[in-house]
Amino acid sequence: MDRIFSGFLLSVLLLFQNHGVYGAPPQPRGTLCRTRPTDLVFIIDSSRSVRPNEFEKVKVFMSQVIEALDVGLNATRVGVINYASAVKSEFSLKTYQTKASLLQAVRKIEPLSTGTMTGLAIQYAINRAFSDSEGARVRSPGINKVAIVVTDGRPQDGVKDVSTRAKAAGIEIFAIGVGRVDKNTLRQIASEPLDDHVDYVESYSVIEKLTHKFQEAFCVVSDLCATGDHDCEQICVSTPGSYKCACKEGFTLNSDGKTCSACSGGGGAALDLVFLIDGSKSVRPENFELVKKFINQIVDSLEVSDTLAHVGLVQYSSSVRQEFPLGRHNNKKDIKTAVKRMAYMEKGTMTGQALKYLVDNSFAVSNGARPGVPKVGIVFTDGRSQDYITDASKKAKELGFRMFAVGVGNAVEDELREIASEPVAEHYFYTADFKAINKIGKKLQKKICVEEDPCECKAIVKFQTKVEDLIKSLQQKLEAVTKRIAALENKIV
């Protein structure tokens, strides 16, 4: 009898445990990033082509990177080399040991305003900045040696050989180019892999957007859930150096370990989605191809069919051109083929005119939109609009369209926020580099889905009733056992 009762009790406990796992999945938790000990030297171009206000932007960028570091004698040490025709050490790795003193020193740096001797500056870093006498530590697996080179022009000396020597000495080099910089020079300077170590921005006004990349580069323990670098559809749960996915109550995790299905077995939902794509001259042909891949990345996540997701595509520059309306293509293959064939328009950036077209035409029933089906617009732009966007942006949201705004390079974040639906933080995205838009695509894949109500399955009600009955039965058995024990004790006495 006792063995049967123990087995019954174990079954009930396991039942409660399973209910805890599926009924209330673990929630994401945030952790602070700890930066690894690093000897970091900024090598900053302040030649004549860098205007004073632009140089201030570089100082802001350096300060933001430093803000995210664990600064100290046994943590990260920071030095700054300022160069033009000559090289000036602003401060060495041993000069400051606190974050506050470093930030104050950065604010005092002044531009030199002459030529561009980038090779000479890198040679100085090898000979002096990363020397023991200047505060550099002995090379070891536990100490990283990193140089961040920021330049906006073609160097007046060679950089290939000296950069090779620096990398052979164990210095990891990041190369940031601005404006009309010679991109081949950046590739010669940077460490491998080049995709991780070369960055380009159109102007100094957006260089601080690269801050997040370097915060991650120096990070030892990062919460991938908090940074959004994961593939979970609903809930991301952090684990040491990794993550796992979970689902909301009423949903189950699919075999891919990432996506979730409603417990009623429901699939996708009906959705009318229109892409509004900036095809202005500033995008450039090679980046326009990346935009096409971004669109098809989103399409891959949809359940496209006659009854579920429909996709439309509009391109704009100085004028607006509908590439294909909602409902013309009813499978992913045809949509992706049409996207690949889209020709680049070039010219201006009339975002306001394009938004008005979206409101007046793209989501009209006469243009393929379905009554009663949720409407989603994804606006992609790389620059400031040449016309007003306020009225059309406001009307789109008043009509119930869910608007996402994606900006790259010189896109104006205030405009992106104005386009985006509420809550704005969940509906607008920005990156300084076209190469990073695939990461935005991953985030959008999770957000554009029409959220279904957690299923109100009869099975859940039955489950809860079963648990309550088991608890009552357990209580009755416990009372009976208590009485038996009391009776035995009385006999012993």
From TrEMBL:
For this record, the Gene Ontology CC terms, alphabetical, are: extracellular matrix; extracellular region
Major location category of this protein: secreted
Compartments it resides in: Secreted
Q: Where is the signal peptide?
A: 1-23
- Tell me which PROSITE patterns the record gives: EGF_2 (PS01186), VWFA (PS50234)
A single MF term (Gene Ontology):
calcium ion binding
What would be one Pfam family of this protein?
A: FXa_inhibition
| Entry keyword annotation includes Disulfide bond | yes
* UniProt entry keywords in alphabetical sequence: Coiled coil, Disulfide bond, EGF-like domain, Glycoprotein, Repeat, Secreted, Signal
Q: Which residues form a coiled coil?
A: 464-491
Q: Which residues form the VWFA domain?
A: 39-214, 272-444
Q: Note the SMART domains from the entry.
A: EGF, EGF_CA, Matrilin_ccoil, VWA
Biological role stated in the UniProt entry: A major component of the extracellular matrix of non-articular cartilage. Binds to type 2 collagens and forms long concatenated protein networks as part of the extracellular matrix. Required for the network-like organization and bundling of collagen fibrils surrounding chondrocytes in the zones of maturation and hypertrophy. Required for mechanotransduction and adaption to mechanical loading in cartilage chondrocytes, resulting in an increase in expression of the extracellular matrix components ACAN and COL2A1. Acts as a moderator of angiogenesis in response to injury.
What name does UniProt use for this protein?
A: Matrilin-1
Task: Give the originating organism.
Answer: Alligator sinensis (Chinese alligator)
Query: What is the organism lineage in this UniProt record?
Result: Eukaryota, Metazoa, Chordata, Craniata, Vertebrata
